[in-house]
């Protein structure tokens, strides 16, 4: 993410300089000059797009804020583009980490906080916590969210109902596993798939039925089962062996098990060895499995599976087109073959734009243009692939060193600590363990040491 950003930032800079005299605002949804709103006479920019800062000369300059959350800077100082003014939350698949601009960097808001104001005071909390007096406090047990008082729940988790006193009570009958939610009295209000609601309880549908309104008629069957004829309300096993679904009619298969292809309404074993899928025609393999020793791809000539053609290829879908090369080689997108990467690069790509290094050897990272691997340039730094040469990655320091985001240095941890942050040790070196429950200092393990990290695994 950061590298693509830097690259595109470099291009944008060139554009901005080329088109010096006239300000040209970007069309909505595109980023070219980085300007959102130009002055009427076109002499300068008035408002820049996200991730650009407005410079004194009226141009927009791409933000280059260092640090782990540097990418999340949405507005920076155009004359000092490494100084961030506004940050946006960093969201993963399961939760968001709220960020705020502090001393020019993007810093996390605080524990469980998903958004905070410019001063770092929390304004929104994550799951299972509520915003109480500016901090995120854990709600009562089995509560999904609370708003004003940590002891009073607003929304309970699955299988629990909200009682009048704000606690979450287990739904009655939930030991059967059918109740999704219930009212304060524990009576079911919603059921899981395969169950239906009846008189405040969840009752199981007929066997192999996944959706019903009563236990006699089924609206949708489980995988591997279908109605005994189109429109019927029962569930019987799919007629064809090796069939995994037949939702409309048990005699018409729609998907087959792996290494079987759908031919007409039935599943037929794929003919080629090592074939994983051959939908539509059992003779032509569309996806191959690989065994422990050889990577295989489909072979257009035979319809079967063959080893990836390039000797330096690690995996391929089509045997003639490599999708992933061995260390030190990169896919040449035009030829579908593997080519040696530039010096010190362990992974790279060659596409129509040129050569791009992606991962570098220990102590090296891609330069801004991603053209070559350069020394990280930070003492005791082993890895800078994420942020690029010039900055050490947050966990990129050598064992026994921790990374300081603010100063971009690897500093020595306390004795026996393998990895640390500025004020605490994350974990101890082998043969060392935390001295006490504050988990700050590590001490050497001694004979018969009972601390879990000291107990050597015996075979
Ligand atoms: C919030 O803080 C104020 C002032 O510190 C205090 O009087 C109040 O009781 C707190 N409310 C809760 C719910 O803790
Ligand atoms: C395919 O179906 C047959 C007949 O039911 C069964 O014996 C065989 O184990 C199945 N093969 C696979 C790979 O599931
Ligand atoms: C892996 O597949 C290749 C090509 O089909 C075959 O020559 C080789 O014997 C297989 N190895 C194992 C361990 O199955
Ligand atoms: C080539 O790869 C680089 C880096 O991944 C990417 O930024 C660029 O857009 C690619 N060019 C083309 C033509 O795909």
From TrEMBL:
Protein name as annotated: Insulin-like growth factor binding N-terminal
SMART domains: FU
Recorded coiled-coil stretches: none
Organism from which the protein derives: Chlorella sorokiniana
Record's keyword terms, sorted: Signal
Endpoints of the signal sequence: 1-21
Domain of life: Eukaryota
Organism lineage string: Eukaryota, Viridiplantae, Chlorophyta, core chlorophytes, Trebouxiophyceae
